[in-house]
Design goal:
This protein is α+β, with helices and mostly antiparallel strands. The protein has 12 helices and 14 strands. The radius of gyration is 24 Å and the shape is globular.
C-alpha cells in the first residue's frame, strides 16, 4: 500500500512515494513529536497551533499522484479510505472493527484519523464507499468530517505512541449503490434487538460486560479486562465464510462459557443463513460448532481477546456524546498516570546510583520531553516521597 508525502499542507507537489506502514511508524515513533507537542500546548484554533500544523509534512492516505496532488492526477489507490473523526479520542472504539486497518490521534490530540480497508476500491467507487462508511459510523454516533470525502485529501503526519495497527485486517465489501445501505441492525456489534431470541431461559450475551457496575454509570479498570464483541459483515462471500462464522462461534463461547452445544449451533446457523452468500452447508456449521465446543469443554480452546479499560454500564442513561466526553477525559487521565509512573520508576533507577535526580537528568534518560517532565515534576516528587515513606514505615515495623 503506497502513499505520497508532501512538504507541508501548502504544497501540492509530490515529495516522495513510500509505504503506508512507513508513515504509521513515523506517527508512532514521533518523527515530528516536538512540533506536535508544542502545537498541542497551544490548542486547536490558536494561531500558533495552526502555523505549526501548516509546516509539518503530510501524506495522501488514499493513494498516489503524478507530480501534483489533485483528483485529475491520481496514479493509484492504496485500497484504504481515510476518515477524519473530530472531537473524539477513544481509539478502542475502532479496535472491534476488523476492517479498520489503523487509527491514531490527530495533531490536536482531540480527534482521530482512521484508515479503513475496502475491497475492490476504485476511483469510480470511492465516493460511494466513503458515503457508506460515513453512514455506518454515524449510526454508531461517530461523526466523520465531510472534508475527508476528498480522494486527494492530505493528512498531517501526527504523533501518537498508542497508534493502533490491525494485525489481521479484513477488507470491507461495500454493496453497490443500488443495494440498501447497512442498517443499525448490522452495525459493529450484533443488535440485541435482532438476535436476542434465546433457546430456554438464558439470554445469549454477544458482547462482554462486567458482572457488576456497583450502581455506577461506568467502571475504569486500569490494567484492562479481556473483551470480545460479535461482528459480522452484512454479506460474507465465499472464501471468508469459515473465518467469520468461526470467529462468531468463539465470541459466543467466550461470552457464554456455559452455553449448550445446541444453543451454540442455533446461533451459528442463524448467522450463517443471514450473512453468508451462499450459505455454508448445515453439516459444515455442525462440524465447526462441534470442534470448537469440544475444545472449549476440554479447556483447550484458544480465544484471542482485546483488553478494555473503560466499561460503560449497559443500563446507563448516558448519551453517546457524554460517553465520548468521559472516554476522552478518562483516557487522558490514564495516559497521564502511566507517564508519571514511568518517570517515577526512572527516577528511582537513577537515584540508586547515588546521583542527584534533576529534571534535566531525567530528561536525558527518558523518551519524554523536558516540557512533560516539568509539567509533572511536582507529582513525580510526591509519588517518590510517598513511596520512600512507605518503605521506611515497613522497615520500622519489620521485627
Amino acid at each position: 500500500m503506497l502513499t505520497n508525502t508532501f512538504t507541508n499542507l501548502r504544497s501540492p507537489y509530490v515529495q516522495s512515494e513510500t509505504e503506508i506502514q512507513s508513515i504509521l511508524h513515523q506517527i508512532k515513533a514521533g518523527q515530528y513529536k516536538d512540533q506536535i507537542q508544542k502545537a498541542r500546548a497551544y490548542g486547536k484554533g490558536h494561531e500558533v497551533f495552526e502555523r505549526i500544523k501548516a509546516d509539518i509534512p503530510t501524506f495522501s492516505p488514499n493513494g498516489c499522484f503524478h507530480i501534483k496532488r489533485s483528483t485529475s492526477t491520481i496514479k493509484s489507490l492504496s485500497g484504504l479510505i481515510y476518515l477524519d473523526i473530530d472531537d473524539f479520542s477513544e481509539l478502542e472504539v475502532f479496535y472491534q472493527h476488523p476492517y479498520v486497518y489503523s487509527c491514531w490521534r490527530s495533531v490536536s490530540g482531540k480527534g482521530i484519523g482512521v484508515l479503513v480497508s475496502v475491497s475492490g476500491l476504485t476511483i469510480e467507487s470511492f465516493k460511494h464507499s466513503w458515503s457508506y462508511l460515513n453512514d455506518h459510523f454515524n449510526q454508531l454516533n461517530i461523526e466523520v468530517d465531510p472534508h475527508s470525502k476528498d480522494i486527494s485529501r492530505q493528512c498531517v503526519i501526527s504523533y501518537d505512541p498508542d497508534l493502533y495497527i490491525n494485525p489481521e485486517p479484513i477488507s470491507l465489501i461495500i454493496p453497490e449503490p443500488s443495494i440498501e445501505p447497512v442498517s443499525s441492525t448490522y452495525a459493529s456489534t450484533f443488535s440485541e434487538r435482532y438476535y436476542s431470541t434465546s433457546t430456554g431461559s438464558d439470554k445469549i450475551k454477544y458482547t462482554t460486560t462486567l458482572d457488576s457496575y456497583n450502581g455506577s454509570e461506568y467502571i475504569i479498570i486500569e490494567e484492562g479486562k479481556e473483551y470480545r464483541s460479535s461482528y459480522l459483515p452484512k454479506k460474507i462471500i465465499e472464501g471468508k465464510r469459515h473465518k467469520w462464522i468461526g470467529s462468531f462461534i468463539l465470541t459466543l463461547l467466550f461470552n457464554n462459557p456455559t452455553i449448550s452445544s445446541e444453543k451454540l449451533f442455533v446461533e451459528a446457523q442463524k448467522a450463517n443463513s443471514i450473512h453468508c452468500d451462499p450459505n455454508l452447508r448445515v453439516e459444515e456449521v455442525i462440524s465447526m460448532v462441534k470442534w470448537c465446543y469440544d475444545k472449549h469443554v476440554e479447556h483447550r480452546l484458544i480465544i484471542h481477546t482485546r483488553r478494555k479499560k473503560i466499561w460503560f454500564n449497559p443500563e446507563s442513561k448516558l448519551t453517546a456524546k457524554e460517553k465520548q466526553s468521559i472516554s476522552g477525559k478518562e483516557t487522558g487521565r490514564l495516559r497521564k498516570q502511566r507517564t508519571i509512573d514511568e518517570l517515577v520508576q526512572l527516577y528511582l533507577l537513577i537515584q540508586v546510583t547515588d546521583q542527584k535526580v534533576t529534571q534535566k537528568k531525567l530528561n536525558e534518560h527518558s523518551t519524554k520531553s523536558i516540557r512533560t517532565i516539568k509539567k509533572y515534576w511536582k507529582e513525580i516528587l510526591e509519588k517518590v516521597h510517598d513511596g520512600q515513606k512507605e518503605k521506611e514505615k515497613k522497615g520500622y515495623l519489620r521485627p
